[in-house]
């Protein structure tokens, strides 16, 4: 019975994570249509690609038995993120942006290759291999889930949820919760810990959304002119932060 429940949570985690991986499609359609990456940052896509590669490797049977569902979704995510990176390279707004993106992609490939080679050639014992790959995937996953912290800070500062879409926040919470339960049932701390962090941060985003969803745009009156100027300035800076700050687990980095 426990295995059936674990499988159900794994499948739900796959479906929700796929939604999160595909959430940047409108942004990349805009990039292709305008043939320019404009001011969007390519860092989140490279970081998410690395996270997916490490997690997919960790879920393989010869590294971590009985975690194939971890490999399936992260393998799909790695393919999707790789397409995003290629599009970013093709339509980079400046040669400097393209060179930076190429450097980041090369670093991602080097880190993944190093982890994979060391785990296969230097660590012949199953537990040692699982420990190393699990730690690498966990650190990267926690970084992915923590990436929206700058957006959450912006929400508190501006009292506006404009750059923190509800569906994306809900998706992060549900995805983190599904994989957290999956990790608990499988007694796998390398799945449970990072996704427990993701579930908690997703819940915080939902709480912030509930608090500030009606705070902006309703105060017409005596400070209208001053507020408009301040909002315009904040919107410009927040757009930059939203584009650069990422979204996720990762995977929630694109909000346009």
TrEMBL record:
Spans traversing the lipid bilayer: 6-31, 43-60, 72-92, 104-123, 135-156, 163-185, 191-212
GO MF terms held by the record: sugar transmembrane transporter activity
This protein's record includes keyword Chaperone: no
Database matches in InterPro entries: SWEET, SWEET_rpt
Record key words, sorted: Cell membrane, Membrane, Repeat, Sugar transport, Transmembrane, Transmembrane helix, Transport
Keyword Plastid: no
Region (Disordered): 218-256
GO cellular component, one term: plasma membrane
Protein origin, superkingdom: Eukaryota
UniProt topology in membrane: Multi-pass membrane protein
Annotated localization: Cell membrane
Pfam family, one: MtN3_slv
Functional summary from the UniProt entry: Mediates both low-affinity uptake and efflux of sugar across the membrane.
UniProt family annotation: Belongs to the SWEET sugar transporter family.
UniProt cross-references to PANTHER family, sorted A to Z: BIDIRECTIONAL SUGAR TRANSPORTER SWEET1, RAG1-ACTIVATING PROTEIN 1
Protein name: Bidirectional sugar transporter SWEET
Record organism: Miscanthus lutarioriparius
């Amino acid at each position: 019975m426990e295995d059936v429940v674990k499988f159900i949570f794994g499948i739900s985690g796959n479906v929700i994570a796929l939604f999160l991986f595909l959430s940047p499609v409108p942004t990349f359609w805009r990039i292709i249509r305008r043939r320019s990456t404009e001011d969007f940052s390519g860092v989140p896509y490279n970081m998410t690609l690395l996270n997916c590669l490490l997690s997919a490797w960790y879920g393989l049977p010869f590294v971590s038995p009985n975690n194939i569902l971890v490999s399936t979704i992260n393998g799909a995510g790695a393919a999707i993120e790789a397409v995003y990176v290629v599009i970013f390279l093709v339509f980079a707004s400046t040669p400097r942006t393209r060179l930076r993106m190429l450097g980041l992609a090369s670093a991602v490939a080097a880190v993944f290759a190093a982890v994979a080679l060391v785990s296969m050639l230097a660590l012949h014992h199953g537990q040692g291999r699982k420990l190393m790959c699990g730690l690498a995937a966990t650190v990267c996953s926690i970084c992915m889930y923590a990436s929206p912290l700058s957006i959450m800070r912006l929400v508190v500062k501006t009292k506006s949820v404009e750059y923190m879409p509800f569906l994306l926040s809900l998706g992060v919470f549900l995805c983190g919760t599904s994989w957290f339960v999956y990790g608990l049932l499988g007694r796998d701390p390398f799945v449970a810990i990072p996704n427990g962090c993701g579930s908690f941060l997703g819940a915080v985003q939902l709480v912030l959304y509930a608090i500030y969803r009606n705070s902006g745009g309703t105060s017409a009156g005596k400070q209208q002119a001053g507020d408009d100027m301040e909002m315009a300035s904040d919107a410009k800076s927040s757009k930059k932060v939203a584009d650069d700050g990422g979204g996720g687990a990762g995977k929630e980095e694109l909000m346009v």
